[in-house]
TrEMBL record:
This is MFS transporter. Pfam families: MFS_1 (PF07690). The keyword Oxidoreductase does not apply. The chain crosses the membrane at residues 21-40, 60-80, 87-104, 166-193, 225-246, 258-279, 291-309, 315-336, 348-367, 379-397. InterPro entries: MFS, MFS_dom, MFS_Efflux_Transporters, MFS_trans_sf. It is a multi-pass membrane protein. Its main location: membrane. GO terms for cellular component: plasma membrane. Keywords: Cell membrane, Membrane, Transmembrane, Transmembrane helix.
């Protein structure tokens, strides 16, 4: 009863004072965008067949998607500081919609890779603006608000991959991805109508000059920001390596059909729908260190067991264990939202996210190269070992690591 009451109270606070529709619009847009990105791993077997791609090159395609999603976050953060977050998020949704048209009409691998990079760049405009506008709407409940938003992202990642996989199996992979483009146009319209008009802020970071860069970096070299950024990098590296090739692994090493692999892949994100709000609330209540340690233990066990488990239902259990790591992103990003000064919050988040996500984007191509050389199973054990390092680093943080 106590837990139910706490959840009801949080939900009431998040919806109060007319904030609810804003949260729904922001979270809904994030759900569609992340769902779009996670259709790629499910369709990777089809893309490999259509364009004659090896596992390494297939991993590189996912890396290009992640890299695009990373590189635009710094410019997106600067634009969010300087102009309207509403305009930035709307632009991101529309760019992805247009890019998807190029992807599904691609006739060569070069066009496929270029259009995929554009999908990533469009998505990269959304995340920082989403965080900065939520921090203004919910200054005292950023963990809970961000947890709900990220959980909605996982809802999109739960729903869209099996739908895309089913459409690809029944009709064609192009339709399995292309059906999302009209939804993104709807997202753009809803965001434009729902979110408030925001005037130019006159941010102190108006350009990428050496002086402004030095100012931002100076503000980021405080507290545990750099240390937590390194932890975030390791988490992104593991998450992108795992998700990028997991459906392919389930098909090629565990003998599942593409449809079952898509369903199991969606299970990973379905658990995230529950994990992320709880992780955000845990951050608000017990702080960074303990909240991070709790969500990272399960994945160590799950990734270690994965090579030795067969059968759909045992794999569901292992996938559920691994899924608790999805709470990591909510916790670390809530910390950054709290810790980075308001005047450079968008730019500072852009620096952190672009740096960590760009380096982490190398994960899928490296993981694909390991798989091509016969080390698919061993790769997951290696990811578990890296997670052990993350936990050890987490335990070195102060007991209450808040700004």
């Amino acid at each position: 009863m106590g837990v139910a009451h706490a959840i009801q109270r949080e939900a009431t606070e998040l919806w109060a004072e007319g904030k609810g529709p804003l949260l729904v619009a922001i979270a809904g847009g994030w759900g569609v965008l992340l769902g779009t990105r996670m259709v790629y791993p499910v369709l990777l077997p089809y893309l490999r067949s259509s364009f004659d791609l090896s596992l390494t090159v297939g991993g590189l395609l996912v890396t290009v998607l992640w890299l695009g999603s990373a590189l635009g976050q710094l410019p997106g953060g600067i634009l969010a500081d300087r102009y309207s977050e509403r305009a930035v998020m709307v632009a991101g949704a529309l760019v992805v919609a247009v890019a998807l048209v190029f992807v599904v009409t691609a006739s060569t691998p070069l066009v496929l890779f270029a259009a995929t990079g554009l999908v990533g760049l469009g998505q990269s405009l959304y995340p920082i603006a989403r965080i900065t506008i939520l921090s203004k709407i919910y200054p005292d409940r950023i963990g809970s608000a961000l947890g709900v938003t990220m959980a909605t992202g996982d809802l999109g990642q739960t729903v869209f991959p099996p739908i895309g996989g089913a459409i690809a199996a029944a009709v064609a992979w192009q339709l399995g991805l292309g059906f999302i483009a009209p939804l993104l146009v709807v997202v753009a319209v809803v965001l434009w109508v729902t979110l408030p008009v925001q005037p130019s802020t006159g941010s102190p970071v108006d350009s990428l000059s050496a002086e402004s860069a030095s100012s931002v970096i100076g503000k980021l070299r405080r507290s545990n920001l750099v240390f937590v950024a390194f932890i975030l990098f390791l988490y992104i590296l593991i998450w992108q390596s795992f998700t990028g090739l997991y459906p392919t692994y389930l098909v090629e090493r565990k003998g599942l059909s593409s449809s079952l692999a898509g369903i199991l892949f969606s299970v990973f994100f379905a658990f995230g729908v529950l994990v992320k709000p709880l992780a955000g609330a845990a951050y608000d209540r017990i702080g960074l260190r303990r909240a991070l340690a709790v969500v990272l233990v399960g994945p160590v066990v799950g990734l270690t067991l994965l090579p030795f488990v067969d059968g759909f239902w045992p794999l569901v259990g292992v996938t559920a264990l691994v899924s608790t790591m999805l709470g990591s992103g909510t916790i670390t990003q809530s910390f950054f939202s709290d810790a980075i000064p308001d005047e450079v919050q968008g730019t500072g988040l852009g620096v952190v996210r672009t740096t960590t996500a760009t380096l982490g984007a190398l994960g899928p191509v490296v993981f694909g190269a390991l798989a091509d050389r016969g080390y698919f199973d061993e790769g997951y054990v290696l990811l578990a070992a890296v997670l052990v390092v993350v936990i050890i680093l987490t335990l070195r943080l102060p007991e209450r690591s808040r700004a």
